[in-house]
Design goal:
mainly alpha; two-stranded antiparallel sheet
């Protein structure tokens, strides 16, 4: 029966954001009745079960329930795999992915007997997967994995975290030499020699790998595999004819992967609206180079002006963060204080416990004399709190940066710079706030490590002694 349990147990999202298992007795009884081979002595594969369920699908509603239960388990598995593969490096976990794709509740089946006007037209991800699945052409596990990874809302979230779910080889397949030339010139600022070599490499790749791929697709479809040793050798030979450059199979593979990653960075940028991933604020060159490139015009003056601009920008970033924290916290405190001095003090204490001591909302409630978790959530309004700081900081930093840019650019150039500077600043401030949100979502963080939390806690420490 262990094989069949995923066909009568639905994985669904609980109110707390965690998954829970709902046992569907109707589905369990259906499997026991129609699948006599379910016994400890007999091994039954998923393919055998699914093949039989699809035969019964049109005439038996429980067959659909069984398949949707299985799909829910596979969806959970895909989210866990994405977390294990990308989560730690890109700052998210499975619980942030579940709401996008783990949305089947069987409400459509429960309401099947209700009047037509009351029935919802919403189709869960599981229903869409099941309705589009052809058992003659694919495996249900594979099909579910494919559609989950193609889910639009999930991909928007992943793009915002710097992840683009497509293989290097698929990227290279559908990119032209003309596009490579433009991307490497305008986005990556590579030299003309580097760009020329990249174009020749792509043309060689297309001549060998893509042609082989097109022939293969006439017979069957599937994901793009890593080029074989034989293909890499042929690509290297083709490249040598074009450029006289001699590469080993390993070097050819490495250069293809490097080119694909440059193209991936560009695609993440244009699809998510994000700039290239920023490093820590301790790396001042990286964090100011985009702004500096916008306002510095003369190469001969660039080095000294960049040093001056870097120092100015770091000072103003921290100053604007401190000013914004003070403004928003004091404003929130004053609003609460007019209603109740007790609530105002509870707000400051809860803020300190959450961001500086890593306490969960549940843990904070009794420490500030509140009875329920929702009362702490309503008191802190963390999403609104961070949004207010982000907006205030953006306004101040944009004004100060543009004022400084007068030293480097003409009035006409400033008009063109204003939008670019605003986008660059919004990105950096967004990264700051996002790092704080990720840190806050991790339970039992004993001390703040994000830049945002560090300065927020400094402010609270100073003002708690006043």
């Amino acid at each position: 029966m262990t094989v069949g349990s995923k066909y009568w147990r639905l994985v669904r999202l609980g109110a707390n954001g965690n998954t829970k298992i709902e046992e569907i007795i109707l589905a369990k009884n259906f499997l026991e009745k129609h699948f006599s081979q379910f016994n400890p002595q007999t091994e039954v594969t998923d393919n055998q079960i699914q093949h039989q369920l699809f035969k019964l699908l049109k005439n038996y509603l429980p067959a659909q329930i069984c398949l949707r239960c299985f799909i829910s388990h596979q969806i959970e598995k895909v989210c866990i795999q994405l977390e294990l593969q990308f989560g730690k490096e890109h700052g998210f976990d499975r619980h942030q992915l579940f709401p996008f794709v783990l949305d089947d509740t069987f409400d459509d089946l429960r309401n099947k007997g209700s009047r037509k006007g009351n029935q919802s037209t919403y189709k869960s991800v599981s229903i869409k997967i099941l309705n589009s699945f052809n058992p003659e052409k694919a495996n249900l596990s594979t099909w579910t994995t494919k559609l989950v990874k193609q889910n639009r809302e999930l991909n928007v979230f992943l793009l915002e975290h710097g992840i683009y779910l497509i293989s290097n080889w698929a990227i290279l397949n559908d990119t032209t030499s003309k596009q490579v030339q433009r991307i490497l010139t305008e986005f990556h600022n590579l030299t003309s020699t580097e760009i020329e070599q990249a174009c020749f490499l792509l043309e060689s790749y297309h001549a060998i790998y893509r042609q082989d791929r097109l022939k293969q697709r006439l017979k069957s479809r599937g994901k793009c595999p890593t080029p074989s040793s034989e293909q890499l050798q042929r690509i290297a030979e083709c490249l040598q004819q074009k450029t006289k450059l001699i590469l080993s199979e390993e070097n050819t593979l490495s250069k293809l992967q490097e080119l694909a990653e440059l193209l991936r960075e560009y695609r993440i940028h244009v699809r998510s609206g994000k700039l290239l991933a920023q490093k820590s604020l301790d790396n001042t060159q990286i964090n100011t180079e985009g702004l500096q490139a916008s306002v510095v015009q003369s190469e001969s003056e660039q080095q000294s002006e960049q040093s001056e601009f870097t120092q100015f920008y770091r000072q103003q970033f921290i100053a604007c963060l401190n000013d914004s924290l003070e403004f928003v916290i004091q404003n929130r405190f004053n609003i609460l204080n007019r209603k109740s001095s007790v609530k105002a003090k509870q707000f400051l204490t809860a803020l300190q416990l959450f961001h500086c001591q890593g306490k969960s909302i549940t843990e904070i409630a009794p420490l500030v004399n509140l009875k329920a978790q929702y009362q702490v959530t309503r008191l802190l309004k963390l999403k609104e709190f961070r949004a207010d700081i982000r907006q205030k900081m953006l306004e101040q930093l944009c004004d100060r940066t543009l004022a400084k840019a007068i030293d480097y650019a003409s009035a006409h150039q400033l008009q063109q710079l204003e939008k670019k500077v605003a986008i660059a600043l919004e990105e950096q401030i967004g990264e700051l706030i996002q790092a704080a949100e990720v840190e806050a979502s991790i339970a039992n963080t004993s001390s703040p490590t994000s830049f945002f939390a560090e300065y927020l806690c400094r402010y609270l420490d100073i003002h708690s002694t006043e």
